[in-house]
Structures are given as C-alpha cells and as structure tokens.
Design brief:
- This protein has 570 residues and is of the alpha/beta class.
- Among the domains are: 78 residues, Arginyl tRNA synthetase N-terminal domain (Gyrase A, domain 2, 2-Layer Sandwich); 96 residues, no CATH class; 173 residues, Isoleucyl-tRNA Synthetase, Domain 1 (Orthogonal Bundle).
- The protein has 21 helices and 13 strands.
- The strands form four sheets. It has a four-stranded antiparallel β-sheet with strand order 1-2-4-3. Strands 6-5-10-11 form a four-stranded parallel β-sheet, with helices on both faces. Strands 7-8-9 form a three-stranded antiparallel β-sheet.
- Strand 5, helix 5 and strand 6 form a beta-alpha-beta unit.
- Helix 4 crosses helix 18, helix 18 runs antiparallel to helix 20 and helix 20 packs antiparallel against helix 21.
- It starts with a helix and ends in a 9-residue tail after the last helix.
- 39% of the residues are buried.
- The protein binds arginine (ARG).
- The site of arginine has 9 residues, from helix 12 and strand 10.
Length: 570
Amino acid sequence: MNLYKFVSNSINEKLGFDANLETPKNREFGDFATNAAMVMAKSAGKNPRELAGDLLPKISELDFVENASIAGPGFINIKIKDNFIWESADKKIEIKNPNPLTIDMDYGAYNVAKSLHIGHLRTSIVGDTFNRIAKFLGHNTISYNHIGDWGRSMGLVIAWIKKLHPDWPFFQDKFNSKLDYSKYYIPVQELDTYYPSAAELAKTDEEFMEQARVITAELQKGHAGYNALYNVFIPVSLKAMEDVIKKINIMPFDNTLGERNAAKYIEPVEKILREKHLLEKSDGAEIIVVKKDSDTAPMPPVMFYNSRGAVPYDATDIMALYYRKITDNPDKIIYLTDSRQKLHFEQLFRVAELTNLFPTENLEHIGYGTINGADGKPFKTRDGNAAGLNDIIEMVNNAARVRVLESGKKINNEITESIALAALKFNDLMHDLRSDYIFDPESVTSFEGRTGPYILYTAVRLNSVLKKSNVKTNNSKLVELSKDERNLLIGLLDFERTVQVAFDNRATDILANYVYDLCQLVNTFYHNCPILRDDVDEQIRAQRMKIVQIAFNTLSTVIDLMGLKIPNEM
Ligand code: ARG
C-alpha cells in the first residue's frame, strides 16, 4: 500500500481541501505533517495556529490517526496507529493502474560489428530498470534494441573486408548467390577489429573513405554480394550482443529491429514527406528543414538522403517512428541514449510533428551523462583505450574477488560474479542519470555503504533468518512495535510511492537511494530487535519474523526492479 497517498487523500477528503503532506525526517512528533492550516488560513481569515486548532479534531477523527498535534507556525503533525501500520504493511502490493500506457522503450541500441563499450552500460542498465518499473506500474511496454546496422559503419566494415580478401566472391562482378558462405565465417574477435581499423584508415585515406560511402549506398540499394557478406557477419554480431545481454542480466528485448528494418519503410515515409513538401534539395542531398523562427540556438536540417543516395542515421529514425506508429501505435516513445544525441532527437521530434507521425509530447529523449575515470575523462583501460563493456565487467569481477578474499568469506565464483554485477549496476542506478560520474571498481564493490553488495548482503541476511527459523508467520499478531520495527514498516510502506516517483521523474537514483535507506532500516532493526535468540518471547518473535518476511519480499521486489539477483549466501 502507498501509505503516503492514502494518508494524504484521506486528510484532503476530510478537510475538503488539497493540502501538502510532508514526511519529517525525525518521526518523534509525527509520521506526517500537513500544511493545511497554513495554506487555508488566509481565506479563512484566521491565523494558521488558530486554524490548526480548529482542524485538529477533524483530523483526529480519522480512524488511522493515533494523535494529531500542532507544531511551529501551524503545521499539524500526525501520528499513525501502530495497528494500522501493521495491517497495511501486511497487505499484498497490488498496483492498479487506471491509465495504462503503451510505451515503446528504445534503449541498448547496440551497433553491429562494433563491440560494446562503456557507453552502452547506462542505456542498458537504466533502460532495463525503467522497463521493469513501467511494467510493474501496469504499463504495457515494448522494448526495442534499435541496433545500428545500416549506416556508414557497415560500408567501412565491408570495405575493410574487401581490402583483406579482395578475392572473396562477394566482391566479384558475377556474384553467385547460390554459394555456400559457411567458409567465410568471421569470428567475433576478428570482426570487432575491422570497424576501428577501417575508421582509422578512412581518416587519412580519402579514397578508402569514398569507397566506404559508395559501398554503403550500394548495400542499401540491394547489391547482392555486399548483402550476402552482410548476412555473414550480422549473426556473429547479434550472437555477441545476446551474450552480453545475458551476462549483465537485462531482460531480453522484445525487438531487435534497428536501422535496417526501419529503412524498409523508406517509400511510405518519402511519400509523406513529399506530400507535405518537406523535402528540399541541397548539394545533391535531400534535407528536411526543421528550424523555427523562434529558435535561438542553431537547428541544422535533417538529412534524408545524402549526396550518394544513402539514408543516414537521422533518416532511419524517422522511418523507425513510422514503423512503430503502424505497429505498436504507442502512447509514448522513450529513447535512452548518451546526452550527446540531444540535438538529433530534437530534430527527430520536430520531423515527427511536421509529418504528423507523433505529437512531441509523446516523444521523450533521456540523455545520460558519461562514465569517467578518476581523471574526470571518459573511462579508459590501463593501456589507454576506450574501455569495452567486457573490460569493465572483468575489472569489477577482479575487484569483487579481492573483496571476497579480504572478507575471509567462503564465496564461490558464481556468487562473486553476481556480487560484482550488482556492484556495477547499483552504482550506475544510484547516480543522477543526467550527470557524468566517476567510476571506481574498488569502491563500488565495497560491502559497506551505498553499494550493490551492501544491498544484496542485507537481503541475504533477511533470507537466512527466514531459512533458519521454522516460525510460521501466517498467524503473527501485533504485540507492540518498537521504534525500529515501526520505522522499518513505515519505510516499507513507502515503496509504492517511491517506484511511482522514480518513474515519473525518470530517475533511478530515487529508487536506488530508497533501497539503500531501507537496508539501513533493516540493519538497525536486525541489530536492535533480537529474533531467534532464546530469551525472546514467542509472540514477539512471531511478530518480528513477520516483519522480516515483509521486508524480504519488498527488498526482493526492488532488487528485481534493478535487475540484480540475490545470491543464496554471502
Ligand atoms: N546505435 C546508436 C548509438 O550507439 C543509438 C541509437 C539510439 N536509438 C535510436 N532510435 N536512435 O549511438
């Protein structure tokens, strides 16, 4: 149950007025405080404290209120009955969404024939969590791994392969499409080196660059040999992506439809653009002008066809909008990419509006910050290269191994790896999404403080109490709540509200900080309220076991929303 919302609604209903409910950090005088008297005083022609005095009896009448008192300039503090807290905490969490939306979620968005790098971490981890949260809140989500599989990088890779193997059949004038391609298999380790090498060469070798441009355009227009070769290396890349998705424990994507799929819809999209006279010729290319008179910042046009007749990234996103419109027809599309793509999405959303595909308010781009090293520059490996996703995972695994050794605990490799993953993911989720952060494998794997391992450890601790005890919690009754038990239950009753707020604000740090605070409450409770000790009264034990049970359930749910797994032991 969403305790905050319940209390807030009840008070507003009782007073016939929309007041603001606050949750004081110090609960000594009340669990909630309302500013109702202060807001209503003026129109009531009374001073706030006096009005608060009038409102007090009304609030005290509410059956969940233990007592209400006046504080400061006219706040009303409200203390909730223990019994009400106890019963509410025990209710199953059921979210009824009166307004479920269909949401297309565009995250991950890996590029084929390029290995995943650190830049793909946040889109994957955060995107997966938003997707889980949206589903939890009752929305219908459709996730898109909008892969980069149709642009200039494809031309570069093919040009590179041509340079390495000019004799391969894909490059011959008379291409035999009945050929058995299996012997042209390219292992992923090798494939991953092609794009960086080609891109490097293209910087200085204009002829090579030109060749790549031509190949890109020809590939897109259906050149049989290039397409056959493309079909040789795409599955290799897709397989590597799938391995990473499994490794970082994010949900499988509903769709792996990217630029190439979108490009199939070029005809209907071009038709719309022509009908609306939105395409303009410019230096052999065709562009869409999206600038408005009111713009103060530069707003370049969107390229639809480049001068070689190929469709660039910008254009494929317009077609992807069209595809989503005719398939899912979503209420909302959320894109999650590096903040450097801000302009791209601004342009895209303007095209969406000009073409009537989607109103701008249904489109949302969340741009996240960069993950930096201690020097404040984008994180690099020891040898100074941009860190690959696998390098990062390996680094965190190593740091976690050291931590485990230090702790003297007997923890097997599999668990160590799940601790490492939790460390990596939690650290990402707890940072403000829109800002850069500094990544340090050592500190994120600490078993103490605001870290993934601490969260998992708390859950494991609760679970081990549950496993050790044979106390049945179905008939647990409330005897009396100590301060720590009470605080924990109130913390648990804030879960639903937090998930909602985290989603509304598109802020995973709200959820991560909540779970950290919750773990603090759990550990204080655990420390101060003995459960299985012999001298504990049986009924108190049953009551505390019930609290352990509820806390574990809620914690498991949040941990799951963050895409982490609770190990059996730790
Ligand atoms: N593949 C792109 C990249 O790695 C991100 C694509 C984001 N999604 C989109 N619909 N444009 O930068």
